[in-house]
Structure formats: structure tokens, C-alpha cells
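Schema walk-through. Below, the input block comes first and the output block second. Nothing else is stored per chain. Lengths vary across the set, and this one has 267 residues.
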Amino acid sequence: MIPDTKGPWDGTIYMASSVDGLNFEGKTLLLEQAGVPNLLKLQNDDLVLTYQYFSGESKDMFDVIAYSYSDDNGENWTEPKAVKIEGLPSPEAAGRVPMDPTLVQLEDGRLRLYFTFHAKGNKSAALYSATTSDSNIDSIFSVETTPALIVNENLLDPAVVFFDGLWHHYAWKGEDNDNYHSTSKDGLSFTRQDDINLEMDFLGQVIPFEGGLRFYGTGKGVVSAFSSDGYNWKIDKEEIVQGADPAVQQLNDGSYLMVYTSMNFNE
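--- output ---
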């Protein structure tokens, strides 16, 4: 069932850990045939890992946004289960599915999923969001009525974080070290800001970190950059691990858990 050609289904997800958020150790296999991971620590301190999954056993689980759950700081994870999304517009073509998940939790406990989707009538794939009515990852995510952001080319692999009164959205442009940046007051409708030029791709995850934001992205391996305002960034650590598209969260004991793929898109 897995295609013979190379593609995202060749990805393997690993875990690594760190005491300071910059120096990571270990390479523990977590999941095969998956990519674009995102890691969220819930308000109850459990972890939810979302990713694009390509099952080799179930057609219904091939190329779907799926999740695994951990209630012991990532020591053990549940088997992949598809995220339930309702209210999607018609796709631009067959095979256009929601992908590239980023999961956040709102102040009232509800979960919001940001993802890439190419709807019929749109020139390119856009940023969409869908929200649950409660804090249960197994609940149905209802799609917002309009895309959160459209640009004149494919807007892939979103990273979204709430910081200093605004929602910040980032995505890599795939060329010239430029990365998209947009902001929103409500997290539903985003306004594009100036592109961010940095020698790394904003392909990964952004988290609050010591009075600012840290973006774990992709360069020659996993790369880290820091910003005190969400607009201006400086790389502070290169080649953290040999991999790409990382997801990171700080655990209750102060340590950091990283999930990343074996692929390196800049090799």
C-alpha cells in the first residue's frame, strides 16, 4: 500500500531529550511512516503528538492527520488514531487532504488545529483551522468558515503560537531563506507581516521560551532561533540533531522533549 516512489511516507519519527532546550541527547524510535510532527502539552500536563500518518495496513489511515497520546511525559504513547475533522470545503482535486497539523489549546480548554488544505476555487493551498467544543483530542474538530490566511502560493507547514497578546503564525517559503509571518488577535483571521529572512527554514515548531519565543526549525539538521518580540530572530544553535521538522515541549521537571523526523530537507 505504501508507494514505491520516495515521499513523506518514508519519514520516521524519533525522540530526543534535553535539560536546557539546546543540547539534545538520545535517538529513540517513536513511529514509522509519519512526518510533520507537532507536540502539545495540555493544561492537564498530558502530551498530544499530531502528525501526518501513512499507514501501510489501513487505507483509511493513509495520508491522514493522526495523533498519539501520552500521560507519562512521553515514555509511552497510544497507537495512531485519526483526528476527526468536519466541515471541510470541497478539495481542489482528488487526493487533496488536510495535512501539516499544528495543535494548540485555547485558554478555555478547547483545542484548535491549524493545517494546510487546498480547497476548490483557491489558487493555492491555504492555512485553515478547526476547533473542538472541549479539551478532548478525540472530539470532532469543526472547520472555521473561511481560511485563516491565503497567499498567492502554497502555504505549507504552519507553526502557530500565542505570545504577548497575539497569535503568531510562521511557515517556510521553500527558497531564499525567507519565511512567512502573520499575526492575529483572535487566532482565526491572520494578517501577513514582513517575511523573516534567516538561514533556516521555519519548518518545525515555535514555543514560548524565557521571555520570548524559540523556533526549532530545519537547516543542516535541526536549528534553533530566538526572538524577544516574534518579529526579529537570531539563530542561537545549529545542528542540534541530524534530522528535520522538529517539535518541542518543556516538561514539568524543566527538561525538554523533542520529536523530529529522520528526513533532512536541506541535505
